[in-house]
């Protein structure tokens, strides 16, 4: 048996740490001992029992942002997946047989499965993952930064793979959560001139200090009209979509990577008249993971700034803080909570 963070029922906040059975990998599967598992917005939706997450069944182990070590392999797995290899699991798995998967978009496959939502996740002592969903972690990358690989791959896809951030591009990223911060860093890594757009409020000073430590410029003021080449919308705010349309130059690029609680309302006519390219970005592919890991090697200590580690016994509190926008024990805004199952 092992401990895991589990959805107990469809009721709000009915998520607990319970004992579950640790199973052996079947054909094509690998068991990974979880070193760290990050919590994210999807886990928070389940915790709050938000509309649209009813399909996440009771007894589901949560968590899809993980780093760990291979401990057992099933039959039919390649030789490079040996015990002791450090890996990150890809969170989404396509069916592998449809035209969408064949076209290189398994993360939007109609039959996709999501670790920690539709199949048992990684907020546990170990998880079982199909071998082809594992990506090796470079030796130089500490676990505290490697656990950011999944959200960083989402941010990398939005900023680089879809948004094509490049040298001297004027980039604005709206949203100062984990995805927004990581998207800003990814665009900066590509040589872009990046500004984070945050909100005035109680956490503004702490977010400004964090941005400064990361080498990012941050403001709460809208940029001037037609002054931006690429706008990455990571806040989930309809108002920021409209701000992006106003600030982008004609022919600029708007990349929404957030999900929205309500249907967004923004000035489509203005976007059409400026011929703005609206490029939606969802999740990430294996190529994004691989490129992200190379990027993270250049920011090896990033986890020290963004990740707050909790024991498994503190997992429900970590999830509550994630869902409610809490602060760390030293008073800083919580950016990324990560559970360490083996931490005593």
Written account of the structure:
The protein has about 350 residues and is α/β, with parallel strands linked by helices. The chain has helices at about 40-50, 100, 145, 150-160, 180-190, 205-215, 240-245, 270-275, 285-295, 300-305, 315-325; strands at about 1-5, 15-20, 30-40, 65-75, 85-90, 90-95, 115, 125-130, 135, 170-175, 195, 215-220, 230-235, 250-255, 275-280, 305-310, 335-340. It has two domains: about 1-150 and about 285-340, Alpha-Beta Complex (Quinone Oxidoreductase, Chain A, domain 1), CATH 3.90.180.10; about 165-280, Rossmann fold. It is built from eleven helices and 17 strands. Strands 3, 4, 5, 8, 9, 16 and 17 form a seven-stranded mixed sheet that branches. Helix 1 (about 40-50) packs across helix 11 (about 315-325), helix 4 crosses helix 5 (about 180-190) and helix 4 packs across helix 9 (about 285-295). It is globular and about 60 Å long. The model has no long low-confidence stretch (mean pLDDT about 95).
Characteristics of this structure?
globular; Quinone Oxidoreductase, Chain A, domain 1; 25% strand; 344 residues; 28% helix; Rossmann fold; seven-stranded mixed beta sheet; alpha/beta; 17 strands; 2 domains; six-stranded parallel beta sheet; single chain
Short description:
Helices cover 28% and strands 25% of the residues. By secondary structure, the protein is an alpha/beta fold. Strands 3, 4, 5, 8, 9, 16 and 17 form a 7-stranded mixed sheet that branches.
């Amino acid at each position: 048996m092992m401990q895991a963070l589990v959805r107990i029922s469809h009721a709000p906040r009915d998520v607990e740490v319970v004992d579950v059975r640790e199973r052996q990998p079947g054909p094509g599967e690998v068991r990974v001992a979880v070193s760290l598992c990050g919590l994210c917005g999807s886990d928070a939706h389940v915790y709050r029992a938000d509309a649209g997450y009813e399909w996440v069944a009771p007894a589901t182990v949560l968590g899809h942002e993980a780093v760990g070590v291979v401990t057992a392999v099933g039959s039919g797995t390649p030789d490079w997946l040996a015990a002791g290899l450090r890996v990150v699991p890809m969170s989404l798995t396509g069916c592998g047989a449809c035209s969408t998967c064949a076209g290189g978009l398994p993360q939007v496959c109609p039959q996709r499965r999501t670790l920690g939502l539709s199949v048992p996740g990684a907020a546990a002592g170990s998880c079982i993952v199909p071998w082809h969903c594992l990506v090796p972690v470079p030796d130089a990358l500490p676990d505290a930064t490697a656990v950011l690989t999944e959200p960083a791959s989402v941010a990398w896809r939005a900023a680089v793979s879809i948004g094509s951030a490049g040298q001297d591009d004027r980039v604005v990223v709206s949203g100062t959560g984990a995805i927004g911060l990581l998207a800003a860093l990814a665009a900066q890594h590509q040589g872009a001139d990046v500004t984070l757009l945050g909100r005035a409020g109680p956490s503004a000073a702490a977010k400004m200090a964090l941005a400064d430590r990361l080498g990012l410029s941050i403001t709460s003021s809208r940029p001037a009209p037609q002054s931006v080449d690429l706008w990455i919308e990571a806040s989930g705010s309809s108002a920021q979509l409209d701000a992006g349309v106003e600030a982008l130059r004609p022919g600029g690029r708007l990349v929404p990577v957030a999900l929205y609680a309500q249907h967004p309302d923004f000035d489509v006519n203005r976007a059409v008249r400026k011929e703005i390219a609206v490029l939606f970005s969802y999740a990430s592919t294996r190529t994004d993971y691989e490129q992200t890991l190379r990027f993270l090697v250049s920011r090896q200590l990033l986890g020290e700034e963004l990740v707050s580690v909790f024991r498994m016994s503190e997992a429900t509190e970590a999830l509550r803080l994630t869902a409610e926008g809490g602060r760390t024990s030293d008073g800083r805004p919580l950016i990324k909570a990560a559970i360490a199952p083996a931490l005593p």
